[in-house]
Automatic annotation (TrEMBL):
<keyword id="KW-0479">Metal-binding</keyword>
<keyword id="KW-0408">Iron</keyword>
<keyword id="KW-0349">Heme</keyword>
<dbReference type="GO" id="GO:0005506">
    <property type="term" value="F:iron ion binding"/>
</dbReference>
<protein>
    <submittedName>
        <fullName>Cytochrome P450</fullName>
    </submittedName>
</protein>
<dbReference type="InterPro" id="IPR002401">
    <property type="entry name" value="Cyt_P450_E_grp-I"/>
</dbReference>
<keyword id="KW-0560">Oxidoreductase</keyword>
<feature type="binding site" description="axial binding residue">
    <location>
        <position position="415"/>
    </location>
    <ligand>
        <name>heme</name>
    </ligand>
</feature>
<dbReference type="Pfam" id="PF00067">
    <property type="entry name" value="p450"/>
</dbReference>
<comment type="similarity">
    <text>Belongs to the cytochrome P450 family.</text>
</comment>
<comment type="pathway">
    <text>Secondary metabolite biosynthesis.</text>
</comment>
<dbReference type="InterPro" id="IPR036396">
    <property type="entry name" value="Cyt_P450_sf"/>
</dbReference>
<dbReference type="InterPro" id="IPR017972">
    <property type="entry name" value="Cyt_P450_CS"/>
</dbReference>
<keyword id="KW-0503">Monooxygenase</keyword>
<dbReference type="InterPro" id="IPR050364">
    <property type="entry name" value="Cytochrome_P450_fung"/>
</dbReference>
<dbReference type="GO" id="GO:0016705">
    <property type="term" value="F:oxidoreductase activity, acting on paired donors, with incorporation or reduction of molecular oxygen"/>
</dbReference>
<dbReference type="GO" id="GO:0020037">
    <property type="term" value="F:heme binding"/>
</dbReference>
C-alpha cells in the first residue's frame, strides 16, 4: 500500500473530528455568515473536510479570481450529485453539467444567442410586452406580487427560449416547469438523501426495502424529461409549419441539419435558460419591491429621475436606459443588498493544485462566499445600508465595486444569462417605479415594517412580506392599460 503524502498542507480551517471530519461544522442555516467568520479567523482560503470530501471556502474577490478565473481550466467542474444529478437527470442541464465537450457546446449556444447586450437587444420588445403584462397583473391583484413576479419571469424565459406565449393561468409549461424546479431543490438539498452520502445505494433495485428514493427519482425524472422535451417539440412543429417566432431554439435550429447530439444539446441548453434563469430573476425582482417598501427616499429619487427623463405620457423603454443613471445604480444596489446566490454555485477541481502554498486536492468543492464579497466593509461603506449612491461617482470619489464582478459567478462557469438577467431586472424596476408607489401596509392603524430576512438555499429569496402597491396617478393606469394587444 502506498500512502500518498500531501505535497503541501491543506489551507487552514476549523479542526475536524476523527472519521467524520467537519460534518458538525458544516453550517445549515445562513452558511454565508459562518463562512464569513471562518474568513476572519483563518484568512481568505478555508478548508474543511466533510465525509471524505474536501471543501474550500473563498472569502475574497482577489483569491476567487486567481483560482476560479485565472486557473479556470482546473476549477470549472461541478460536483456529481447522485440523487438530483444522476438519478433524476439534472446533470444534463447546464448549471449541473460536468466540464467537458458537451459543456462547451451548450456554452457556445448560449454565447451565440444571448452572449452580449447587443444580442439580447433583439428580445427587448418581448421584455417590454411581458413587463407591461406584469404591471397589469399587479394593478389588478397587488397582494399576489410574488406569484406575478414568478409567472412573469417564466413567461419571459419561455418566450425567449422557445417562442412560446404562456396563458394567463394554468399554463401547462409553466406548471410543468414549476414542478420540475420544486423537485430539483428537494432532490439536491444537502443531506436529504442517503444515496448522496453512499452513492453505491444507487445500484440497489427499486423494490428493495428503503429504496423508495428510486421510485421518487423515476417520477421526478419523468417530469423533468417532459419539461425538456415538450417545448422543444412545440418549436419543431411550429418550424415545420413555418410559423415559429424567433427564439433561442429556432435561432439555433434554423437551416441546420442537426445531428442527434446537436439536437440534444439545443434541447437541454434551451431548458437551461429556465433552470438557471427563472428562480434567480424572481429573487432579484422580489427584493426590489422589498427595498422600495423599506426605503421610501430611494424610491422618490428614482421616480424623480424617471419623471424628469421620461415624463408622464409614456412608459419607460430600453431606449431610456443610458439617460437614467440613478436607476442603474439602484439595480446594482439591489444585486448587492440581496445576494441572490450568497454562496455562489460550487465549482469542482479537476486536478491537484497548489495555491498560495496550500494543497487543493483534485475533487475539492470550491465555494465562493459571494455574500461576504458584497458585504465586506472594506469594499462597501456601511454595507448593511441600502444606498444606490455608492455606485455614482461624486465629488471626485470613485464608485464602489460593481456587484456584477462577483454576483454572476466566475471563470468559465460565469452566468451565461447575465445580459438577459440584467435586462429583465432593469425593465421591471423602471416600469414598476414609473407607475406604482410601493409602501408599507397599514393594518388596524399600525404600519407593518417587513423583516429583512433572506432564506437559505443556493438561490436565496427574501422571506415573503406584505407591501402596499398603489398606482401613482390616473395617467399611470392609462399607460398600463393603453394597448389592447398587451
Ligand atoms: C439575478 C439574476 C441571476 C443571477 C444572480 C445569476 C447568477 C448565477 C450564478 C452565480 C451562476 C453560477 C456561476 C458559477 O458557477 O460561478 C449562474 C449560472 C448560470 N446561470 Fe445565472 N443568474 C441569473 C440569471 C440568469 C438568467 C436570466 C439565465 C438564463 C437565461 C441564467 C442562466 C444560467 C445558467 C444556464 C447557469 C449555469 C452556467 C454553467 O454552469 O456553466 N441565469 N448564474
Amino acid at each position: 500500500v502506498v500512502i500518498k503524502k500531501n505535497p503541501k498542507p491543506y489551507p487552514p480551517g476549523p479542526r475536524g473530528w476523527p472519521l467524520i471530519g467537519n460534518v458538525l461544522d458544516m453550517p445549515r442555516i445562513k452558511p454565508w455568515l459562518t463562512f464569513t467568520e471562518w474568513g476572519q479567523k483563518y484568512g481568505d482560503i478555508t478548508h474543511i473536510e466533510v465525509l471524505g470530501r474536501h471543501i474550500i471556502v473563498l472569502n475574497s474577490v482577489k483569491t476567487t479570481m486567481e483560482m476560479l478565473d485565472s486557473k479556470s481550466t482546473l476549477y470549472s467542474d461541478r460536483p456529481v450529485l447522485p440523487m438530483g444529478g444522476e438519478l433524476v437527470g439534472w446533470k444534463d442541464s447546464l448549471p449541473f453539467l460536468p466540464y467537458g465537450d458537451r459543456f462547451r457546446r451548450y456554452r457556445r449556444n448560449f454565447h451565440r444567442v444571448i452572449g452580449s447586450r447587443a444580442a439580447v437587444d433583439v428580445y427587448n420588445e418581448t421584455e417590454e410586452v411581458e413587463t407591461r403584462r406584469f404591471l397589469k397583473r399587479v394593478l389588478a391583484k397587488p397582494d399576489q406580487l410574488q406569484e406575478h413576479v414568478r409567472h412573469t419571469a417564466g413567461a419571459v424565459i419561455l418566450r425567449i427560449s422557445h417562442g412560446y406565449e404562456v396563458k394567463e393561468s394554468n399554463d401547462p409549461f409553466i406548471d410543468l416547469a414549476n414542478r420540475a424546479i420544486t423537485n430539483v431543490s428537494e432532490a439536491t438539498a444537502p443531506g436529504a438523501f442517503m444515496v448522496d452520502i453512499l452513492p453505491f445505494l444507487a445500484k440497489v433495485p427499486a423494490w428493495f426495502p428503503g429504496a423508495g428514493f428510486k421510485r421518487l427519482a423515476r417520477e421526478w425524472r419523468e417530469t423533468l424529461e417532459e419539461m425538456v422535451s415538450a417545448p422543444h417539440k412545440f418549436v419543431k412543429d411550429q418550424m415545420a409549419d413555418g410559423v415559429a417566432p424567433m427564439s433561442f431554439t429556432s435561432n439555433l435550429m434554423e437551416g441546420c441539419d442537426m445531428s442527434a447530439e446537436e439536437d440534444y444539446a439545443v434541447k437541454w441548453s434551451a431548458f437551461s435558460l429556465y433552470s438557471g434563469g427563472s428562480d434567480t430573476t424572481v429573487s432579484a425582482i422580489y427584493s426590489l419591491f422589498l427595498a422600495m417598501t423599506l426605503f421610501p427616499d430611494v424610491q422618490k429619487k428614482a421616480q424623480a429621475e424617471i419623471d424628469a427623463v421620461v415624463g408622464p405620457d409614456r412608459l419607460p423603454t430600453f431606449a431610456d436606459r443610458d439617460s437614467l443613471p440613478y436607476i442603474d445604480a439602484l439595480v446594482k444596489e439591489v444585486l448587492r443588498w440581496n445576494v441572490v446566490t450568497p454562496t455562489g454555485f460550487p465549482h469542482c477541481v479537476t486536478e491537484d493544485d497548489i495555491h498560495d502554498g496550500y494543497y487543493i486536492p483534485k475533487g475539492s468543492l470550491v465555494i465562493p462566499n459571494v455574500w461576504f464579497m458584497l458585504n465586506n466593509p472594506r469594499t462597501y461603506a456601511n454595507p448593511s445600508q441600502f444606498n444606490p449612491e455608492r455606485f455614482l461617482a461624486k465629488d471626485g470619489k470613485e464608485p464602489e465595486m460593481e456587484p456584477r464582478t462577483v454576483c454572476f459567478g466566475f471563470g468559465r462557469r460565469i452566468c451565461p444569462g447575465i445580459h438577459l438577467a440584467d435586462a429583465s431586472i432593469w425593465i421591471s424596476t423602471v416600469m414598476s417605479l414609473a407607475v406604482f408607489d410601493i409602501s408599507k401596509v397599514v393594518e388596524n392603524g399600525v404600519e407593518i415594517t417587513p423583516e429583512v430576512e433572506f432564506l437559505p438555499g443556493t438561490v436565496s429569496h427574501p422571506k415573503a412580506f406584505k407591501c402596499s402597491i398603489k398606482r401613482r396617478s390616473a395617467t399611470a393606469v392609462g399607460l398600463i392599460e393603453q394597448d389592447a394587444n398587451y
